[in-house]
Amino acid sequence: MIILSGDPPRSRALSILLIAIIVALAAVPFLFPGAKAMNVASKICIFAALVASYDLLLGYTGTVSFAHTMFYGIGSYAIAIALYGMGPSWAAIAVGIAVGLPLAALLALGIGLFSLRVEAIFFAMITLAVASAFLVLASQLSWLTGGEDGRSFQLPELLRPGTVFVKDFFGVSINGRTLTYYIVFFASAAMILGLLRVVNSPFGRVLQAVRENRFRAEALGYRTVFHLTYANCLAAVVAASAGVLNAMWLRYAGPDTSLSFAIMLDILLMVVIGGMGTMYGAVIGAAVFILAQNYLQALMGVASNAAAEAGLPLLPGLLHPDRWLLWLGLLFVASVYFFPTGIVGRLRGVTRPKS
Amino acid sequence: MTTLETQNLTIRFGGHVAVNAVSCAFRPGELTAIVGPNGAGKTTYFNLISGQLRPSEGSVLFDGQDITNLSAPLRTRAGLGRAFQLTNLFPNLSVEENVRLAVQAHSGTQYDMLRPWRTRRDLIERADAILDSVALGARRDVAATALSHGDQRKLEVALMMALQPKVYMFDEPTAGMSVDEVPVVLDLIARLKNDASKIILLVEHKMDVVRSLADRIIVLHNGQLVADGKPAEVIASPIVQEAYLGIAPGKNAA
Fold first, then answer.
1. Are A212 and B102 an interchain contact pair (Cβ–Cβ within 8 Å)?
2. Which of A22, A33, A142, B99 is deepest in the core (most CB within 10 A)?
């Protein structure tokens, strides 16, 4: 990472945490081959890339976009519609990518040139409007998208769980699902490394200058609308690629898994928890958030039962698994309060910059 | 040869005419001080020249081209450098990075996404050299916001120097500086004057500064150009005495 970007994590604890996450994610198919663990791990990979692309906008340029799930959805739907329509072939995957990614880039270009000239709030409103329109469109054009039900499809033979490469590798079966997982893992890693490279390029430094003081950046001769638009396009392409991976992993694309505003909120939270404008924060934010989302409930069930058996008052009710959203919420309030610069900012020991 | 001229330059904000039909040509190798009371339209005139504002009427000609409709970044790229009156920096970036960004703006790498910025050592070294020239070399690693007011003013000037413009526009470069900091900036401006191909514009309130540096003074009053000439003549002229100074020559007007 350091060689690629020249931007080291700048904190021993952060480096150890990142290595731990990456090693754990790489080893999941062998350590926890169960469906749940694999789903959580692949979701962490995909969201790490998705959140990193959002960080490029929010953390580096200071631009608030609400259309990120739209680009994520474009990638998901492109691959789903191609595989559904053309059947499970590699050609369909290629078509899905060849249509989805340029479509996302073009749309981002259009939105950017149209609205990034002016005040940031205008861009936020435009993205909100376009994303809402896209959500309605996706659920209304049922002949194409499957409407609210979405589209389920099959992957090419090689990527199916039924395709077994090694039947018993230390007790674990290596099959098409394992291969799909590693495609997700390495593609996500490549995107994050690519973004890390971009933010540490001369172009990336201009993005930070725009965030700090756009007026001054212009007075230095930077035509910032182009920098912002290119960043917007790049973020859109990465988000669409993450969408492709997401649909391939789920073998499904629908409004709830790719387009909903709930996902947009999750992305925002992950960026903030991980640390805006750090790139590394995306990996950590995604890991922490998705782990909490998936395992907090189970953890609370155990705690609640233990408290009940110990005969403690009130606690069994408070820790009941049905209250998990309450605790998740409290966890986020606490994390934003105690780590205003995110986990990465905290580990690097920087205090919140004065605005 | 660099030329800069405004023709009938006018801007109205609602009913208020901030700059009123100002026609003036600036010559290379000449430092022109623009003086006038607060609200006379000096900074607005600067904004019209450097492109932060578009005029209601009139035009700006630079090197023989009409640049009235050019955006601020394009005017900067064409060679108009500007240092702002209210310090205008990248507050949370390091002092060095502030200047490096200005150097980078004209290195042809602004859209380069694939190379780490540190590989362009030359840009960093030029930024450091400029920082040394304004006596900020020792502070290069701190955030711009952590600098003292005087140092921020110097950094503001350093950003413009890094652009290597054809036209230098200083907007009260020494405002709010402590007495011992002022000479650094004045020396810098005086050194720029050695290059006879540059046009230097200076908005300044301190009459001693104006008198020591200016080759020519123009006076704005209520948005109008009311006097133009050699420093001694302008300062002595009755219209300036009445419109602006209101004091006997030889005293500070700040």
1. no
2. B99
Tell me the residue range of the domain where B230 lies. Answer: 1-72+204-254
CA angle A337, A341, A24 (to 5 degrees): 100
The residue-averaged pLDDT of A47-57 equals 97
Sign of CA dihedral A271, A277, A283, A288: negative
* Contact by Cβ (8 Å): B163, A220: yes
The reply to whether B17 falls in a domain is yes
What does the alpha-carbon distance between residue A132 and residue A119 come to, in Å, rounded to a whole number?
21
Inter-chain CB pairs, A–B, below 8 Å: 112
**pLDDT per position as a tens digit, B144-164:** 999 998 899 899 999 999 999
Chain B CA closest to residue A215: B88
Total domains, chain B: 1
- Whether B9 is covered by a domain: the verdict is yes
Which pLDDT tens digit goes with each residue over B165-215?
Answer: 999 999 999 888 888 888 888 888 988 888 889 999 999 888 888 888 999
Q: Give the best residue of A206, A213, A220 to mutate against chain B (max B CB count within 10 A).
A: A220
Q: B112 vs A202: CB contact, 8 Å cut-off?
A: yes
Overall number of domains in chain A: 1
Q: Say which of B50, B84, B113 has its CB closest to residue A201.
A: B113
The model's confidence at residue A22, banded by pLDDT at 50, 70 and 90, is very high
Instruction: Please indicate, yes or no, if residue A2 is contained in any of the structural domains.
Output: no
Is B62 domain-assigned? yes
Helix (H) or strand (E) segment spanning residue B57:
strand B57-62
Contact A200 B116 (CB under 8 A): yes
**What's the confidence (pLDDT) of residue B245?**
59
ipTM score assigned to the predicted complex: 0.89
Owning domain of residue A141: 11-348
CATH number of the domain at A343, please: 1.10.3470
Instruction: Specify the amino acid at residue B61.
Output: L
Is the Cβ of B119 closer than 8 Å to some Cβ of chain A? yes
Which residues in chain A have their CB less than 8 angstroms from residue B52's CB? 215, 219
Chain B residue with minimum CA distance to A7: B116
Closest chain A residue to B169, measured at CA: A219
Contacts of B38 (CB under 8 A, 6+ apart): none
Domain CATH code at residue B235: 3.40.50.300
Q: Domain for residue B88, yes or no?
A: no
